[in-house]
Amino acid sequence: MSLEESLSAVEQLIDKVSTALLAADPQSLEQHSTALRDAAAQFARVLEQSTARGMPLPASVKKRVDAIGDMLAIHRDNLARLSAVTDRQAAGLLPPSNAASTYGDGLNTRAAKPGVARIYRSAG
Contact at 8 Å (CB) between 17 and 36? Predict the structure, then answer.
């Protein structure tokens, strides 16, 4: 695979990840993110091979790589925002796990002093 082909593959997958993020589609996001990681690794190998042969990186490729880096930074920020929103939504639906239970600690233990419930004791 050539440098141009591998770079184009990365760019196409970034577009697919962007679409999945905007659609909030977790299955598509996971699938395209995995493919993007693999394509980025392939691009890194091809880039390493071309620099090992002494081929300089063309300015157009450098500009495209910088654009990919900028886009990945934006994706990281958007994923962090989406994660925060999801955490807030889950917190609104589920009680905190450290909340005390309504009727005791749940260990089915009896009180040390059996007797009348405190609600019925006199104030004096």
Answer: yes
Which position has the token pair 């910088």? 66
Say how far apart CA 74 and CA 83 lie, in whole Å. 14
* C-alpha closest to that of 47 among 69, 62, 32, 66: 62
Residue type at 80 in one-letter notation: A
- Residue 61: which of 51, 53, 52, 75 has the closest Cα? 51
Residue 7: count other Cβ atoms within 10 Å of its Cβ. 21
- Give the predicted TM-score (pTM) of the model: 0.65
Tell me, rounded to whole angstroms, the distance of Cα 43 from its chain centroid.
23
**pLDDT at position 83, please?**
87
Q: pLDDT of 5-50, one tens digit each?
A: 999 999 999 999 999 888 888 899 899 999 999 999 999 999 888 8
- CA distance linking residue 61 with residue 42, whole number of Å: 15
